[in-house]
Amino acid sequence: MDAMMGASALAKSRGDKVYDAMFNVACQWVQTNMDTWKHWIPAICPPGMLADPTLSFCSPCPAGSFCVGGTEGSQLCPIDSFCPAKSSSPIKCRGGYVTDGQGHTQESDCTVCSGGKVDLNGGCWSLDVVLVVILVPIFVLLLLVGQLTRFFTRSSSSAEEKKLAKMVKSLRARLHITRKEGFLLNTEKADMWADREKLVLIDKQSMESAARLAMMKREFDETFFDSFCYSLARIQDKDSTSHLFSIQYMSLCNWILELCQQLLEYNLDFSSPLKEMSNHMSGSQHALVENLDRAQHISVLLVDMNQEERYRFFEDKMPRLSIWNDDVTLFVKLKNLVAEICRKLRKVSEAQCQAILKEPGGELLLELADAEDSLKLNENAPSDPWSSYSSSFMEGLRNVDQIPETPLRQDDARVQAIRVSEEDVKEARALFTRSCQCLPEHVFVAQLHAKATTLAETFRESLLLLLLPHSTGLVVQHAGGEEVTLRCRFEGEEDDVTVRYARVKSQHRMREKLKEFAPPAPASGPPAAAPAAAADDVDNAPPALATSPALSDVSHAARSVNVAAISRLASASFVAPACRPEAAWPLAANIVDPVRLSVVCR
């Protein structure tokens, strides 16, 4: 204090005013002696904290009480709430419950029902509700005993059995042999009020055999199906005496014809030949076939079967059915149906042929149709030029025993972006001569371009799926759709990622690239040195992010062999196939980058 008085007097002697001298001395002392006066300030606590009696410090609010903060003390938790440690306010018990007193600390202490309610099944209920809850389940249980038994029986059935049961139900509705129409399976029980003399029993195994036929199951039993057809043929028509067969048998015949049509139809068109064919038929026993309810048409599950599988199923199973021998009229309708399908297929084939001739490479097919030109090519061809052009290297690769671990070409059996058939090989042999540097491969280029166009969208979607988990939500689609910008976060840092899509390589560019893989033209002089490899857009393009099964493995192989660096050797003789596997026919199989993607990060 003496020092402060001395400092104040010194300031006054320098001419400072009395107030200013005292203020400056006091401020200087406060700044230099913070540890001395800091504990004089009372503690102001936040919510959930409690100040000590001297207001010197704050401590956590004890369990069973809540603290509003400031300089206020703790308050005991009320009876309808609980207060864990550090509570700033009481927490209400769940609906209907209270505690047995004040100062409880956790939710499990709320165990008492208020207002005379009853504790039942984890909740507080009034007595009226409790009586309803007890009596109603007992009443419902008596009604659902049979349903529960049926439910457990269905649950124990396998997925295949459930499909079969569903098909049996649909087929019965299609053929008008449901319980409502007086038909029962031999395993079903009749209703108590049903007229048992009018009921018609159908063997369950025969019914399931028909359902398996509808599901295209090869294990369906023809004997049981014949028995099924015979049982429907014996049914008399209840509504009319003018028809020899019942509506059930006519529905069966109609369904069998539709099934045959779907097995033989090229494009699975269910509507065309059957209706036209039936207009030319005679005979009263089949006059109602087209008048049946078409809305009950049953699906025969042909989605996963291609044309060859459907035809093989028809060839293996359908001719064995006895119904063709028993019903001559039905067999005649089948013959007319097949004839109509054949006429339809002929029109489709002619249209497809005309479309192929108009596509790139169609002129080559016209050239092959000229037998005289083909004969001339064969006469002028040397003894065996094909072995040098196609190479035994690639002929061996097409053998399943010699397939390498990594696909190297687009015609690999695991890639099949280019499909080479026996007819293609024969045609190429006929066209090839030593004077040809490379054959026109328009068909294979068109195949590769079509595959690349199909897969381009998949490539783009796969890339975005990799980046979207890192995106913060901003996605900008630029004009033209060839560029997308995303705001992404990687390793704690956020920045823009721009995805630029390279276009699918055009067919013209693919045909130009064939020259890079072509075998050298024959010459009498010594082989010349290979010129430097020309730079190609493949080398300048960013690495491909290949995700498609048709191109993913091949894209990596392309980088290792550097197909773009393979250039033509001018005036050189044929090189051994083992040295130039990339020169093997078809050359288009070496184009491994028809689909490319690039990612640029800023």
- Count of separate structural domains: 4
Protein structure class: alpha+beta
Which overall shape is indicated by the principal axes computed on the Cα atoms? flat
Instruction: Strand order, main sheet: write it out.
Output: 13-14-15-16
Helix content: 40-55%
Q: What is the count of helical runs?
A: 22
What gyration radius follows from the Cα positions, in whole Å? Answer: 44 Å
Describe the sheet with the most strands.
Answer: 4 strands, antiparallel
Stretches where pLDDT is under 50 for at least 5 consecutive residues are 269-301, 521-579
Strand content of the residues, in percent?
5-15%
Mean pLDDT: 72
C-alpha end-to-end distance: 66 Å
* Beta strands, count: 16
What does this structure look like?
There is one protein chain. With 602 residues, this protein is of the alpha+beta class. It has helices spanning 2-13, 18-32, 34-37, 127-143, 145-155, 159-174, 204-214, 222-233, 247-264, 272-278, 307-317, 323-326, 328-358, 362-369, 371-380, 386-390, 392-397, 422-431, 442-467, 507-517, 537-540, 552-561, and strands at residues 49-51, 58-60, 65-66, 75-76, 81-82, 91-92, 97-98, 112-113, 118-120, 123-125, 183-185, 200-202, 471-477, 483-490, 493-501, 597-601. A four-stranded antiparallel beta sheet has the order 13-14-15-16. The chain has a two-stranded antiparallel sheet with strand order 1-2. Strand 9 and strand 10 (123-125) form a beta hairpin. The longest helix has 31 residues, at 328-358.
